[in-house]
Amino acid sequence: MVDVTAAARVEMAEIIVNECLCGKAKQLEKAEVDGIRIGLQPDVVTYNTLIAAYCRCVGIDAGYSVLHRMKEVGINPDVITYNSLIAGATRYCLLFECLDLFDEMLEMNILPDIWSYNTLMNCFFKLGKPDEAYRAFQDILLKDISVHSATFNILCNGLCMNGYTENSLMLLRSLKRYGFIPQLVTYNNLIHGLCKSGRGKAAMEFLNELEESGHIPNAITYTTVMTCCFRYRQFEEGLKIFAEMKNKGYTYDVFAYCTVASMLLKTGRITEANEYLGYIVTSGFSLDTVSFNTIVYLYCKEGQLENAYKLLYEAEKGGLESDKYTHAILIDGLCKTGNFQEARQQLNRMSMTGFDSNLVAWNSFINGLCKAGHFDHALQTFESMDVKDSVTLP
To answer: Taking 90 as the threshold, does the pLDDT of residue 146 lie above it?
Structure first.
């Protein structure tokens, strides 16, 4: 038998993790078998690494199979083993499995640590059960478990996610007096919660506090506040935030530019909207079909069909191909403006490019005809379709 050193065990664990990170989950077991073949017997660290990787890359059932194999060879699981399984169950929102794992830990005289509770709290919040999450936090305090800053961040974030922004604010103020330092994600969630409840001024104050605390706001922070300003018709304030971020050297994503362009289109500032949308297409953004369709939709929604077609031409010239949803959006826009002849021509172009079975587009066309009172035309179109679904009812 080969003499196994700690370094060799660590190396084996690293191989397993690297295989997982490379997306080669099927090779995890091979790494374990290869280790045994050269005399490197797996220990609890090896199996914990396997369980964590399987839960992350394959699924919770694969993690359970490793746990079973681990017990069969006489290696007792520890708190890290169960934390990985609980995290895997949480990833799929399997609350009852999380609770069963907790009970199993206690039956084996394995005491849950702060990470066990953090994961359980996170699961409760994800499932919209903030009261149960807070009871888990109280259990931490009763058992005198040393609390990590991540625990407080989970509490603040979870309360905001579930609409308890005011409670989260009170908790944050209380914890800061005891030296708790909120993370950027905590500020972002609080700002989002305040914006969602219409408290734009408070969100701006938190944005200032975030900067004063040494955190650097990211695109999510600014976009959240900017969107809030637009929602409550504080257009100039929203544009000011957009400009401020650009001046500070931050990079906005496509979503941010689309948000600004949408506001400009809604308020009739077509020329400015064209500048922003044109910038997206020509400035080297990694524009995928989904983002492109969003821009086309914004134009069609505001009746700017000519600009939508110009954008389509520029994008296709640049190598971006339209998909069936692009055609459906254009046809819907044409129908809403009463351009049924052009909508029919768009349907024909769609069929010529291989999207003849696009039911969404056909449904949009028939729906538009019905709304305009062209029932005979709608029925003729319906009868001419090769493929129909339950939605296509003139």
So the answer is: no
